[in-house]
Each structure stands twice: as C-alpha cells, then as structure tokens.
Design brief:
Blueprint lengths: L1 H46 L57 H15 L3 H14 L4 H14 L2 H13 L1 H5 L1 H12 L11 E3 L3 E5 L5 E12 L10 E11 L4 E4 L6 E6 L10 E11 L3 H7 L2 E12 L2 E8 L2 H6 L27 H6 L49
Helix pairs in contact: 2-3, 2-4, 3-4, 4-5, 5-7
Length: about 425
C-alpha cells in the first residue's frame, strides 16, 4: 500500500510538471504573436504621410544665400591638344584614255590605207579595205569607227550611227578615246556643211607687195580664218581657195590669173591648225613672172589687181570675200553665148538649146514632128530606123489587154 501511494504521488508530480510546461509554452507563443502584430501596425502607421495645414499670418523673408562661383584663372599658355594625325591614302592619278591599238598587223595596215583613201575622197576603196579588215576582226573598234566616218562622209547617216553605237557600247575599256568620239557623234548629231555658216568666217586679208622681187611681181596675202570659241574643226575638211585677177594691157581689162604662167603657193603660218585660239593664218604668195618686150607688145602688160577668197567646208561654200569690192560686182555678169560663124550653122539650129531640135523652125516649115505613126520621109538609100508596128494591136477604142467575160457587161457610171 505504501508502495502504491508513493507511485501515485510520483505520477501526479510528473503530470503536473508537464502541464505547467505546456501552459508556459502557450503563453510565450501568444506573447510572440502579439508582439509581431504590434510591430506590424506600428510600421504601417509610420508609412502614412500626415499633412498638417497651418495658416501663417506673418510674412517671413528668407535672406538670399550668396554662393561663391569658382572661376578658373585664364592662362595664355594653355594649348588645345592636337588631333592625332591620320595617314591619308592618296589615290593614284587617273590613267588618261588612249586610242586602242590594233593587234593584228594586217588589219592595222588595211585601216590605215582606208583612212588615206577617205582623205583622198576614194570612198569605194576605203569601204573595200575596211570590209576586209572587219572580216579579220569583227569587234575591232578602230575598224568600226572608221566605217562610221566613211558612211558619214557619204551622207549615209543611219548606217554611220549604227557603227558609232557599236563603238559606244564597248565603253572606255574597249574603245578608249574612240568611246568619247562616238558619244559626241551620237549626242551632237551629224554635222552638215551649212551648219558652219557664221561659225567659221574669213577675216580681213592683209596684202603685201614685195618691191624687191627681181623675178617679177610678187604679192603676199595673209588671210585670217576665224572661228567661234570651242568650235571643232577638222583641217582636212576646210579649204581656202584664192582666185587672183590681173589688169592686162593698156585698157586695164580685168582677167583671171594665168595659172599656167603665174605661181601660187599656200602655207599655214600657225601650226598646228586646230583653232584653239579662235584664229589661224594662211599665207598665200602670188608671183607674176617678168615678161619680155615681145610678150608685152602682143598680150599686154599684166599687173596684180585683186583676188576673191572662198572658204569651203566639206566641199560647200560658207564664206567669200572680194578685194577690191568692185571686183565682186564686175564678176557678177551674165554668161555670154559662144560665138559661131553663121555660114557653119545648120538651118534648123536651136540657139537656145543646141541639144534639142528647133521646133519653131519645123512649125514654120509646116513639117510635123516625127512620131511612131508619122515617121519622117526616107530616101531610097536610107534604111528605116523605126521597128515595124506589132501585128497583134487591138482595134482603135478597145483595151489592149484581154477583159474577162464577167466584166464586159458591167454598167457604166
């Protein structure tokens, strides 16, 4: 009994201890929760902004605060830092365009011969040689451009333009300077000789008479040929002709120069003749040889009188000057009919046109003109020069061609 009582006492003590420990734990946990909630509420309250409005009846002046601005001292010795030098790559100078060379020697010879033939106005020979060169190399720019120039000189502009187009399509790499020339031909069109009128003119000629010439009378002309700035002129296309005139005999008749006796020399003073300065000078010397007394007595003394200067471009006259001016009036005379002896002229001679029969003479003689139906009368020994008429001629008033039956009875309009 005693043992049981002791055991029950020990159990009760243990149970009481455990219950008290649990109660204390619960109280501590509750305090922790209450503390956390309180801290959270206070944290939220501190985040809220409270705006308090107060009415101020007294003006408050706030003194301005002076701020000291720092100004750095100015020194003249300060230099800006130099920019770093960058090495520049200098491009090489552009290579000038050149005329492309002809690789084949036979083709080159044919093109040079064709160019010489074109200068001498032998276009048939030039085209023949160029066609041979084209058969060797169809894509040679020199050959194609020269063919275009030949057709341009002949006035066949559509064919010339087609060859210039072929050269232009090759570009600078294939045609060189010929590309630029072909482009100018296609851009500016083909030039006509009349387009040079008032663009190339003759200046006033200067006349110098040489008094010391023992071989006869010698006259030197200096003729300026002027052009507008930038005008492209080919010297081979330009021609200056001087026609000299002399006074002959005591009556001082004006007669053309005797070219079989007198001597005329042409020479360009300024070379090359490219008209870059707008003017080129042509010097022409005219020499009348000395005559003996017998020739002067028979033909009269011959003295220099004047000249007519003609400027032609590609064979077309574009300017002319006469000196003295009365010479132009004296040369403007109607052509005189040739002199015939009346005893040598046939009775039916047509004076107005010797190549045609005299119709008025035949009409006056009441002789009809010979026709197919009325041939001229023949002599006994003269053969008929007209063929006999065909035997299958239709009757008068009918069509010479057969008419189908369905078209014979058509009503007339």
């Amino acid at each position: 009994m005693i043992l049981l009582g002791q055991m029950s006492q020990a159990l009760s003590k243990t149970l009481t201890f455990r219950i008290s420990c649990w109660l204390m734990g619960l109280v501590a946990f509750a305090q922790l929760i209450i503390s956390g909630v309180t801290l959270a509420i206070r944290f939220e309250q501190t985040r809220q902004v409270k705006v308090v409005e107060k009415i101020v009846t007294q003006e408050v002046t706030v003194p301005a605060v002076k701020t000291n601005v720092y100004v750095p001292p100015v020194t003249a010795d300060i230099k800006e830092p130099e920019a770093p030098t960058v090495a520049k790559n200098i491009l090489p100078a552009p290579r000038p365009l050149t005329n492309p060379s002809i690789s084949d020697p036979v083709c080159e010879r044919l093109v040079n011969e064709a160019r010489s033939a074109r200068f001498s106005e032998d276009m048939m020979s030039a085209i023949t040689k160029l066609e041979q060169a084209k058969s060797i190399n169809p894509n040679e720019p020199n050959t194609l451009f020269e063919i275009g120039l030949v057709h341009e000189s002949m006035g066949i502009y559509d064919r010339a333009a087609s060859y210039f187009h072929q050269v232009f399509a090759m570009g600078t790499s294939g045609a060189g300077t010929l590309y630029q020339q072909a482009a100018m031909k296609l851009r500016d069109g083909f030039e006509q000789p009349q387009d040079k009128i008032n663009r190339i003119v003759l200046g006033r000629a200067r006349v110098f008479t040489d008094p010391d010439n023992s071989k006869g009378q010698r006259v030197v002309l200096t003729i300026p040929v002027q052009s507008i700035p930038g005008e492209v002129i080919e010297s081979r296309d330009l021609e200056v002709t001087v026609n000299f005139f002399d006074e002959v005999g005591a009556k001082k008749e004006i007669a053309p120069a005797a070219t079989e006796v007198c001597k005329i020399d042409y020479r360009w003073v300024t070379e090359p003749t490219d008209w870059q300065g707008g003017e080129e000078l042509l010097r022409v010397s005219y020499t009348i040889p000395s005559q003996d007394l017998q020739q002067e007595h028979l033909f009269g003394e011959r003295k220099y009188y004047g000249q007519v200067v003609e400027l032609s471009y590609k064979g077309e006259l574009i300017d002319a000057q006469a000196w003295p001016r009365i010479l132009a009036h004296k040369l403007n005379k109607p052509e005189q009919s040739p002199m015939f002896l009346e005893q040598e002229l046939p009775p039916d001679f047509n004076r107005e046109n010797p190549l045609l029969p005299n119709v008025s003479a035949q009409q006056n003689a009441e002789q009809p003109l010979p026709t197919f139906d009325n041939p001229p009368p023949l002599d006994d020994n003269e053969a008929d020069y007209l063929p006999p008429p065909p035997s299958d001629l239709p009757p008068d008033g009918e069509s010479p061609l057969p008419v189908p039956a369905e078209y014979k009875n058509l009503p007339s309009r």
